[in-house]
């Protein structure tokens, strides 16, 4: 396992926390001066960062009809080529033009690839990969989908083009069984890294890894409202990490051996954990550990899923039972008013409950509010039905 960090000399720590850095949205539209600044800061400290590149960035990535933009300019290419040659940057393909397929809506998640035929996805990926490899003189093995969105066709296309690793996260998509692709998601924002690191120190286990992601808008020089740090602040984050005896900033080209299993099972368990977390009401989340800000080892994430399942089963089981008892009592109360009213009320309740459940099931994503509504409706209707048996 290799690293370009001076942290490699600090071998007295019983547990090392590997951290990798990733910068997204390098394109013709990104801030060249800022990028030159942070690449130089990494170079001076002998550190390495993955740079996710959009080779043909369109002018308006929210407009599905926008044409692909001009190829990455020579000024940008030269900057990146130098960083790749001296080991400061690991090139990552970040889509083709970063153009979303559908207009913004509640029914379509933003994506450049998900939903396209595998042949079309392979064409877009091949064009981007070949362009970058020719301009940078380096093999491109990593792919980070725009908006972290992809589908199984994307994975098949990546396999055919000999990509080694999918960098998708914090949202988690599908996994192909027996796929040779490695999967390594981003785990936290660079601006939140210190807090995330504290959490990992409290709850982490050997094999835990972290990927800290940042974007152009995180720099105050680019966006003084959304920005979290300027270039000096970025240097401060790097210097902070280098002083931590239990941290190792790993090289993307050499550091994967330290991150443990990067297969589909671990990735899938993290996806389930994040999905399950959204179903936990806020007042229950404080009773146990926070959502992980790291990529947990297989055994740990399996246990966290089991714990989540027990909490969710207990909570929603109790909620359904409570509304079931209320429905049972309500059914008996209505039955005392006469059989016609009882049948009518029960039929209306079943119809309304059924419509609510159908509407909820058709939602692409659930939160605890949707789960509570479904559990309450199901319990109420079930209780009323039982009361008339």
What features would you describe in this structure?
This protein has 389 residues and is α/β, with parallel strands linked by helices. The protein has two domains: 257 residues, TIM Barrel (Alpha-Beta Barrel); 91 residues. It is 45% helix and 9% strand. The chain is built from eleven helices and nine strands. Strands 1, 2, 3, 4, 5, 6, 7, 8 and 9 form a nine-stranded parallel sheet that branches. Helix 2 links the parallel strand 2 and strand 3. Helix 1 packs parallel to helix 2, helix 1 packs parallel to helix 6 and helix 3 crosses helix 4. The longest helix is centred in the C-terminal third of the chain and has 38 residues. The chain is elongated. The N and C termini lie far apart (67 Å). The N terminus is likely disordered.
Strand composition percent: 5-15%
* Class from helix and strand fractions: alpha/beta
CATH topology of the largest domain: TIM Barrel
- Run of helices and strands: EHEHEHEHEEEHEHEHHHHH
| C-alpha end-to-end distance | 67 Å
Q: Tell me the name of the CATH homologous superfamily of the largest domain.
A: Glycoside hydrolase/deacetylase
How many individual β-strands? 9
Radius of gyration: 25 Å
pLDDT average, as an integer? 85
Q: Sheet bearing the most strands, described? A: 9 strands, parallel
**The top level CATH class name of the largest domain:** Alpha Beta
Please give the share of residues in helix. Answer: 40-55%
Oligomeric status of the shown chains? single chain
Number of domains: 2
- Parts with pLDDT < 50 across at least 5 consecutive residues: 1-13
